[in-house]
Amino acid sequence: MNKAEKIVAKALEMFNERGIEYVGLRELAAELSIRVGNITYYFPTKDDLVDRLAQDLSRLNAQVILEEHPSLFSFLERFRKIFANHVQYRCLLLSFVHLMQQNKVLSGAYKETEKKRYSSIVTNLSSLQERGYLSLEVDTDFLVSVFTLTARFWISEASVSFAHLSPVEQINQYVTLLAKLLIPYATEKGRHDIRRFSASLES
Amino acid sequence: MNKAEKIVAKALEMFNERGIEYVGLRELAAELSIRVGNITYYFPTKDDLVDRLAQDLSRLNAQVILEEHPSLFSFLERFRKIFANHVQYRCLLLSFVHLMQQNKVLSGAYKETEKKRYSSIVTNLSSLQERGYLSLEVDTDFLVSVFTLTARFWISEASVSFAHLSPVEQINQYVTLLAKLLIPYATEKGRHDIRRFSASLES
DNA sequence: AGTATGTTTAGGACATTGTCCAAATCAGAT
DNA sequence: ATCTGATTTGGACAATGTCCTAAACATACT
């Protein structure tokens, strides 16, 4: 692990712990037993460091998005995995709005991944319709909106309202919410998959 | 309007414009043609100023919450009003997570209003069941969860994804989302109210 | 009117922040 | 061994929120 990676790793750890805005570069440097200027050598600005973390999360999520989702079960499983990634990089999602407002590099990069995610969810939903998991009259735009809102902010709400729960319990709370959301639009085959998914969370 | 109120008004204006974290007390003072120390006389810390804004929003919302909601239409109308208040104090909601993490006064106060809102929504939903607007088998906890998540973060998502829309269009977007959410759980009478509500947004 | 008392304003000090830079140090190839 | 480029250091800089003292002001009382 080279110096840049050590900085990234410790930064993620401290940012997750206390929030990006509340960890000074001098504290980060002190934890690494280096000088501040040494960090700015690898990452000229704090935003560059944050951008790097965002790239790492983006890569992590891209793997999950590329997977096939032949069933409603695996579609829900996909969100469980993405939410697990969110926990790993929770500092980014907890500062989501500020980062988008202030960090041009990040907000630019997000626009692209946003489009990809949107069309990915649309594709998956219509695929689930074809395979007989979802009813044909479902309002896709509505479902995508709720999924997007939840995926973006579930961890923000959890940090405020469910801080007493473990990460896994928090994840289960919100994937269950997504599962329940789909029930009215699911076929009998779909509802079976949702029950199977809910049961898989128990263990 | 006394000095403290002038400070509060200008602060809200600038905070909404550029974000609480990105407006310095010196800029605020300059806009008011006063000195920094003059602000800290009325509001010893920046958090005190933010707390005041939060109180104002809380009072504004409390009025709406106390209203009766005899129909599904007025229940949805309630959220439209609350969302309009959110727009007026959007700086607070855009910094929601940070404020909750850092500002003890604010997070303490929020815990109470959170409970009130939660039980208020529960009461309203069961009342709507009794009045024949909602089916009796609805999963109340699920609905409250989605409503809460949306009410907290709709404006954050709108600021990122729908910045090109006007405030009213943004509000309509998300109250429509809440309305659509209820459709599967509504009776025929309820669906009639939802259609009426959607139509009322057009004008 | 003059004085005393309490409120408001001015102005600056302080520590902390992210950023930046020049010099010192190190490492590896010639 | 020496030169060259990469790395590290230590400090300067402006901006931030906070704090404090002295001046200015207003109000009430003698």
UniProtKB/TrEMBL annotation, chains A, B:
Matching PANTHER family: ACREF/ENVCD OPERON REPRESSOR-RELATED, ACREF_ENVCD OPERON REPRESSOR-RELATED
UniProt entry keywords in alphabetical sequence: DNA-binding
InterPro entries: Homeodomain-like_sf (IPR009057), HTH-type_Tx_Regulator (IPR050624), HTH_TetR (IPR001647), TetR (IPR025722)
Protein name as it appears in the record: TetR family transcriptional regulator
Domain of life: Bacteria
Organism: Larkinella arboricola
GO molecular function terms attached to this record: DNA binding
Stretches assigned to the HTH tetR-type domain: 1-61
Residues in the DNA-binding region annotation: 24-43
